[in-house]
Amino acid sequence: PRRSSFFWSAPVKLEDHDATAAALVTRAAGIATNGIEGCIGNTPLIQIQSLSKATGRVILAKAEFLNGAGNSPKDRVALNMIVEAEKQGLLTPHQGDTIYEGTVGSTGISLATLARAKGYKAHICMPDDQAFEKSDLLIHLGATVERVPVAPITSPDHFVNLARRRAIEHTRSSSDGSKGFFANQFETESNWQAHVVSTGPEIYEQTDGDLDAFVAGAGTGGTISGVARYLKLEAKMDKVRVVLADPQGSGLYNKIKHGVMYSSTEKEGTRRRQQVDSMVEGIGINRLTNNFEVGRDLLDDAVKVTDEQACRMARWLVENDGIFVGSSSSVNCVAAVVAAMKLPPGSRVVTLLCDSGTRHLSKFWKHIKEMGLEDEGEPTDLFAELGIS
Ligand code: PMP
């Protein structure tokens, strides 16, 4: 397996996984001889100074927006999904094959980028309530983009079902032998396994195995499940607490806390809303996906985060740390602080910074401006709310 010079030796030997796994963690220290995919993984772990000082705990955040292809953790997943599909003969480069995916954006951007590099076309179906930065970027990457009205997962026109249908239609009507491949990030094993073989081991190595909690939101659930499985099952860190960061309106918080799947903005027994009632993009969902289910039993706790808390945290991170992130990263940081305050002083908590604020200018950051937070000083209200004086 290729390794960059600053790469570590994982506690689980790479040979224990297949060649795909090894290929996933190849971020170049020098020349990325395999092109853009050599810029995926091995992201820095940033100690967030302001939050560490305020909490008396060590708050560490993995800078996943520095993944060098599509600038989010989805680079790891997209690469694994493509490599696995190639192995199974579902994709062949330079034959007109097209990757279809239903995504709120990040996975589509990673797939569209890697598709270009690896000789495929990309066709992305996404809900029309997501920030335009993402669909505009997809178009510049040469992907075909369908923005579709928000619909329940039971509808054939839900963005995920539409992507699946488009892939089937492609293969069925293909006159040149080209194939349509539905990547299926919500259900495929290639998603969570990418985090078992790269994100999880990186966190372990970067902290020398000294961490007390891992905190992350779930969109597909691949990240939290994959990292939880690596830390608890492979690295045998039984004591590490895995905590779900869930935005308002998502049903996962209640599933973890109360065993019941209903959204936090509705009462139990009322009709289940399919759409998460939050401005946060990328995390929060009202159904159980395979990727969430494979890690669910390993989750120890969940923290519900309001949109207002997410906005205030995003503003705080810029103001104090020069860290400019999107909404899911901000939710993660709020939940990391809450989780940290439940642990003794000095505890070490790891979370993720999923994407940059530049992908959220027209929605999340516009809202922050409209709230007047950009003119506000320290978020004393937020910290008081989170139990920090
Ligand atoms: N943050 C962002 C910005 C995302 O797009 C996603 C994926 N939808 C996530 C976090 C959550 O990752 P996962 O799908 O692995 O749960």
Describe this structure in words.
- With 389 residues, the chain is an alpha/beta fold.
- It contains 14 helices and ten strands.
- Strands 1-2-10-7-8-9 form a six-stranded mixed sheet, with helices on both faces.
- Helix 5 (132-140) links the parallel strand 4 and strand 5 (144-148).
- Residues 1-15 and 264-274 have low confidence and may be disordered.
- It binds 4'-deoxy-4'-aminopyridoxal-5'-phosphate (PMP).
- 4'-deoxy-4'-aminopyridoxal-5'-phosphate binds next to helix 8.
- InterPro entries: Cys_Synth/Cystath_Beta-Synth, P-phosphate_BS, TrpB-like_PALP, TrpB-like_PALP_sf.
Class by helix and strand content? alpha/beta
Which consecutive residue ranges, at least 5 long each, have pLDDT under 50? 1-15, 264-274
Determine Rg (CA atoms, Å): 20 Å
Strand content: 5-15%
Residue-averaged pLDDT: 89
Q: Identify the bound ligands.
A: 4'-deoxy-4'-aminopyridoxal-5'-phosphate
Number of strands: 10
Cα shape: globular
Q: Report the biggest beta sheet as strand number plus sense, adding barrel if it closes.
A: 6 strands, mixed
Strand order of the largest sheet: 1-2-10-7-8-9
Number of helices: 14
Beginning-to-end CA distance, first to last residue: 49 Å
Secondary-structure element string: HEHEHEHEHEHEHEHEHHEHHEHH
Helix content: 25-40%
Give keywords.
binds 4'-deoxy-4'-aminopyridoxal-5'-phosphate, four-stranded parallel sheet, globular, Tryptophan synthase beta chain-like PALP domain-containing protein, alpha/beta, 10 strands, transmembrane, TrpB-like_PALP_sf, 389 residues, Cys_Synth/Cystath_Beta-Synth
